[in-house]
Write the structure tokens for this entry.
Amino acid sequence: MRVLTLPVGNLGTNCYIVVHNNDAAVVDPGADVNSIVAALAGEQVTPSSILLTHGHADHVAAAAALRRLTGCSIIAHPADGYLLRATDNEIARLLGLTEAVVPDMELADAATVNLAGIEFTVLATPGHTPGSCCFYSATEQVLFAGDTLFRGSIGRSDLPGGNHKTLLRSLGRLKQLPAEVEVYPGHGPITTIGRERMSNRYW
């Protein structure tokens, strides 16, 4: 498995392209759909799915356009549906959400999802948003964390729909993962569970 990182949009959101054999998946296409399509073409792959860690516009604004261009499915947690439809929200529009995102499939805690032919477990981690999720592969020792956990920090809980106590419970769940798990966050550089246990003062 290879992971390509594309910082997209005004907030530098990490869009991830997961490539395995001849398959691919995209995690959080938040903007710059043409750049995402160009990166997929460079890998000579067409994604089978788009997975959304949560519904904030900077993570989802390019999802509908990418589905039209590639024919892949969008998968998201239903608790963030109100965010995926927030085209009348001024901030969401400024971040590029001009078209409502309608998922083809819904995420559920402990469900298994397929990213480029690799099984990932859905970890529901509400707190940043009600429908925030992380995707964990025990075989690859990889976690796509969205905006729940960052290198040296944690997700915000002061935005509408956020809840700090709920976020701390979700972070406690991630703390149980093996130290060697690589964490691919929604913003900033990758890290590991072990590094964050030792040095993240917010965790």
User: Anything to note?
Assistant: The radius of gyration is 15 Å. The chain has one domain: 2-199.
